[in-house]
Amino acid sequence: MTGAASPNFREERLSRRSFLVGSAAGVGALGLAGCVNSDGALRAEAAKIYGPMPNEKFPIPATDVSKVDPKYFRRTVAYETKAAAGTIVVDPRNFYVYRVEGDGTATRYGANVGRDGFLWSGDAYVGRKSEWATWTPPKEMIRRQPEAAKYARGMPGGLDNPLGARTLHLYQNGAYTLYTIYASSEPDTIGSGITSGCVGLLSQDMIHLYAQTPVKTKVVVLPA
């Protein structure tokens, strides 16, 4: 990603987490049929959904589900909306992303969102999609944090790349907004505001959403 809306970059160290902080599984699939109410059982089921993905270009390790509040695990929920099936709705106030299924339900994913001062709302659409995208820090970030200059020509895709395994690039009126929905390998960031306006899902969730999202899909970002 380029531009001011890049995932954040923490000044004290150059790492994937630095970049992030400074710059449909159904109800049954997660064992959420109403009879499971212990965190232990819930996390055990979630571990199956968020297991390793060894066949990726850069093999993805299992998510440490102990670092994620269970309310942010992927699940199917009742969701009444007039939006067409396939529409993506971002709810930054509650740290959720929804994929509308068109039958009164949606697939809901836990997310990290923009920190104070970087929140935005409005309608957009997926203008392009990327797998293991190159990340380029914006000029503003390089001026603020000169150590990022080493990636001025782009950081190749990989596990340490801030954009992760999959990226949906958001556009408005034919122009790239510089905002994305991206894959995060930082489970403890889910449910928090840490980015410069981008929206992060756990890698396994992002791959799940990405596979069902064609270019031109409408994205609605609700007010925070």
Automatic annotation (TrEMBL):
PROSITE patterns: LD_TPASE, TAT. GO terms for molecular function: acyltransferase activity. SUPFAM superfamilies: L,D-transpeptidase catalytic domain-like. Keywords: Acyltransferase, Cell shape, Cell wall biogenesis/degradation, Glycosyltransferase, Hydrolase, Peptidoglycan synthesis, Transferase. Residues 84-222 form the L,D-TPase catalytic domain. Its EC number is 2.3.2.-. NCBIfam families: TAT_signal_seq. Belongs to the YkuD family. This is L,D-transpeptidase. It comes from Methylobacterium adhaesivum.
